[in-house]
Amino acid sequence: MCTRKVSRVHQELSAIIQNVAEAKKITDIEYNVIFGFEDVDSFASGFYKVQIRGKLNGCKVNQRLVIKWHHSVTDRACFREAYKREHIFCNIVTPFYLNIQRTLICNEGLKYKFPNCILSSVEYNKEVIVFHNIEGYKLFDRFQTIDFEHVSLVIKNLAKLHAFSFITSELHPDKFEEFKQQLNKDVQYSEIRNIPKSLIYYFNASLSVISNEKYKDKLRNISRHIAFILNKYSAPATKYNVICHADCWHNNIFFKYQGNRPVDAIFVDYQLVRFASPVTDISYFIYMCTDFHFLSKYYDQLLNIYHGTCSAVLRECNIDIEDVYPRAVFDEQLKEHSQFGLVEALISMKIITAESEEAQKMTEIKRQVTNDAQIEEYEIQNQDIFVNRVNGIVNFFFERNYSLNDTQYP
């Protein structure tokens, strides 16, 4: 980044930090900005850590913040709707959910950790979100094989998050309808004509390494229709919809450890939250982050953990899960809606198994490229990981007899 651009970015960040200080009533501030940071394996620009020091009510304070903001006008336009979505979740949904949690949920183990947003703006061309930094938590290395302890924490947290929608639906139907109206259009896929054509080529990159010819043929038959699949399954189902995180994978999950053992998890990045089937979140995480060996051993246990945790949260509010999300319905949605997670993972697998620099380049291309020749320039270093992960999730999906055939294409 050239000196002139850095200077301009510093000036704009300084204005944001001053706004934070004013909102928190901190005076005499000093701050240090870190432009990007090693402990977050980010595929995109727009993240800054800030250490801010000053005085609050005469006492010294020292706080660490994360600022989500894009200095590029082009990037601001690209992420504008995502910032609006996170603003809605943090400023409208989260306070309501927190009130439910404080008043109705007594079991500490069933409580969900919400993002600690301290400033957000969706003013045109000045979009910004500021959070307190998450202390004592860290990312899981996406190149390592994830284990049951980590995955079960994620599944439990998805169940807790989804349970709030069922509680709101039952106890506050007017508020639930309000949330639905604000979140029922997916940020990425609600307009088929705006879905990048490049997704087909990333999907086909995964398709090209599948070894089972029968499975490959089935997936090849849908390759031209993946935009329709993404559009259909990211939208609300007929019934049983919840506010989904919609981007639950390694880079958006922080874990707390005691020794080497994970004991807690926090989700970050709510810029894609949507109103849809809970299975879209579950299948997205499972296919993006696990492999065939893991799923073959633990998949059914994880489904039981999800439904059992959701049931336990609902019982705190005197709601029977069989009235709001029966196990039979959950199992049926898994058969049909899991294709959403599989398609998303096959589109993303080449990127998420790449080293950070490669992944960043491919992520930028993914939003704009329209021919596979440009994609082929980026052969990843971790080809064996890519091939194994693709074949693993494809084999598992079809061995479960999940559906690719229930969708009627236009």
Automatic annotation (TrEMBL):
Gene3D superfamilies: 3.90.1200.10. SUPFAM superfamilies: Protein kinase-like (PK-like). Pfam families: EcKL. Residues 129-316 form the CHK kinase-like domain. InterPro entries: CHK_kinase-like, EcKL, Kinase-like_dom_sf. It comes from Pieris macdunnoughi. This is CHK kinase-like domain-containing protein. It comes from the Eukaryota.
